[in-house]
Specification:
two-stranded antiparallel ribbon, Heat Shock Protein 90, 3 helices, alpha+beta, globular
Length: 143
């Protein structure tokens, strides 16, 4: 269970098998993690959709057909300060191999654009250890 104050989640991390059947479980768990935050229903839906797309990309693209792998999710919040508003950060990580969009099968192909629409910022890093997608979203002061 996340360590939390009202409107704040200190840090939570979990890993699931990179399997399509796990995506619904990831969405449910993420919605529970988001519950203490001051997000509207629309904001919660946008965050869940962006994370779902990142996790689905891991399931579809990170591992080869005979490879097993994992989808890792880490969520934390950063409190508001003089530099800016409170921020929700969610990192989706795999330990597979990045394949640029041109090298993927023709199915899909809109995931990064969708994530960029649903989250305020999307940062993607990949190297020989796998891929990391960092989604960030401003959160309102709960008071």
């Amino acid at each position: 269970m996340p360590q939390q104050n009202p409107g704040h989640v200190e840090f939570v991390h979990r890993s699931w098998p990179a399997d399509p059947e796990q995506l619904v479980l990831i969405r449910r768990e993420l919605a529970r993690w988001l519950a203490p935050l001051a997000l509207s229903d629309d904001e919660t839906a946008d965050v869940v959709l962006a994370v779902d797309e990142a996790a689905a990309n891991v399931v579809r693209h990170a591992y080869g057909p005979e490879e097993s792998g994992a989808v890792e999710l880490t969520l934390w919040t950063e409190e508001a300060d003089a530099a800016g508003p409170a921020t929700l950060s969610i990192e989706v990580v795999d330990h597979g191999q990045w394949r640029p969009p041109g090298e993927r099968p023709t199915e899909g192909g809109r995931g990064i654009g969708l994530m960029s629409t649903m989250a305020e910022s999307v940062l993607i890093h990949y190297d020989d250890r796998g891929s990391r997608v960092l989604l960030r979203h401003r959160i309102a002061d709960p008071q």
